[in-house]
């Protein structure tokens, strides 16, 4: 079997026990790494995965580099664990590189980090592994993922990690944790047949829409081949070649397009895709770090005669920032060159690129960029962009910079910057809870004090109560830490005395006393972890309330119209829903087009309104109104002149955003809907 035949066979092989076992029996002898690389280069992920699994089924070893390159495209996680168990090379380093690429998501990261900790055995845990575990501990994890995190944290002696995931560590010590550990280790040690299904699961067909390659010909019409015979007696006779159909990818709906895997998207003829389809494809390629495919998609948009209404620059900017986040220096440089050629040249983008490959002049570049930001105070987003660039490359320096950009006018940006500080402390393996939180609370307090009187006194009281509770939680955590340090000192002294007594053959120190001290330390660590979780929740709630107060206070000042927006006759006041569950937003095509075409500040405001409504924000729902003529459609104001129209589907947990329109268009829109 030559290389082409092998790849064709692997591509057709179903990912079942019988399919992979059959392929394993037919594998040629010798190294198959080149064949797997060829499949990966062609984005034929099914073939690459089939070859890797077949090699393991045949008792061979596989290259961890190829495993980590193919795994994010697979439909499940269990195959990854099976392949890692038979991998060669720098396995732990490759797993950490995969986690850093952010292609796998939290479930994959939890399994990957657990496997990395297990494979280390008694070796010292590298700092970047501890850093990734800490970052994962701050995420909202599903139970099975939290169990894997807790199992990994139990093996890593890091006080900061213990504080962040104390609850998961406790759960990992139960029978449920033992079963989860056994399952993960069985995957690591077992053959593919242990995880593969016996038959291929039914899959919804996601192929392309097709149309006839030639116009349809009637049976009694002259044959188009020119023979002079009737079609039914010539090319349309029984046994003639089947009618050929040509794919029409431009007719792919957004839902069908989203169902295609990245390698299927890359195989499409980009020239036949519409500009919105190319933008969505570029975003998918960006997520999976398929840079060449993403660049091809953007280049195809550029070739369109109409320039596709400004889609090129935003897509290239997103691609540039994704490349920066993934440390893909050459990709980022190529994208920035394209942007500069089109007149988009921002000093912070140049700084981000330079700091990816820093030279001795980097400090001067940082100083120049900081001076540029200070010289343009009207660009209120630039200071926060600047500190986020520093946080990635120079986290310790950035921690100090963040303390200078906290701003009472922008509570959400300030909260995001402080979250970046905690991420930086995790990278630096410093204890959680940076002292800058005190400055953050002072900024939020200033925001509350500066806000003028508001009719919603309950909102102001809620904010003040949250601030007080946050201060109390901080005081409790500080006291618990002080007590824990004192007990740790006492415990260290007791252990030293025990060792000295043993060396001098004196009466040993009471082991129960040492155990009691250890129990006290564990108790204080648990209380501190609980306090930190409480403070994180309170901070986010306080930032949300402060932002709502700030927007309420600043709203009339930004408007050139009346302080109270005029009421629409189509809208009616109704009580807000009694239960405000979290809803998942979906966007109709009209809403997507409106958000892309309207000025960015209006689109951002509309998206903030969607997030507030979907998140069950009581203040947002108090402002919502139901339309009179179409009772199941709701309206939310965005500024003075715009309306967000949406429907609720509480059974499915959905908030369907229908459109975003000027209020003058409301009547005409309703006429079309009726």
Structural overview:
The structure is a single chain. The chain is α+β, with helices and mostly antiparallel strands. A six-stranded mixed beta sheet has the order 5-7-8-9-10-6. A hairpin with a 4-residue loop joins strand 9 and strand 10.
Q: What attributes characterize this protein structure?
A:
alpha+beta, 31 helices
Strand content: 5-15%
Strand tally, please?
10
* Fraction of residues in helix: 55-70%
How many helices in DSSP terms? 31
Q: What is the mean predicted local confidence, pLDDT?
A: 75
Q: How large, in whole angstroms, is the Cα Rg?
A: 30 Å
Largest beta sheet: strand ordering:
5-7-8-9-10-6
Span of the ends, CA to CA: 64 Å
Low-confidence stretches: 239-247, 551-567
**What structural class do the secondary elements suggest?**
alpha+beta
Quaternary organisation of the protein chains? single chain
Shape: globular
How is the main sheet built? 6 strands, mixed
Short description:
Helix content is 61%, strand content 6%. The chain has 674 residues and is of the alpha+beta class.
How are the elements arranged and paired?
Elements: H1 3-12, H2 17-26, H3 33-41, H4 45-57, E1 62-63, H5 64-70, H6 78-85, E2 87-88, H7 91-100, H8 105-120, H9 127-137, H10 143-155, H11 159-164, H12 166-172, H13 175-189, E3 210-212, E4 245-247, H14 254-259, H15 262-266, H16 275-287, H17 291-303, H18 312-325, H19 329-341, H20 347-356, H21 362-375, H22 382-393, H23 395-405, H24 411-427, H25 436-450, H26 457-503, H27 511-558, E5 571-572, E6 584-587, H28 589-597, H29 600-614, H30 618-623, E7 625-627, E8 633-638, E9 642-649, E10 654-662, H31 666-673
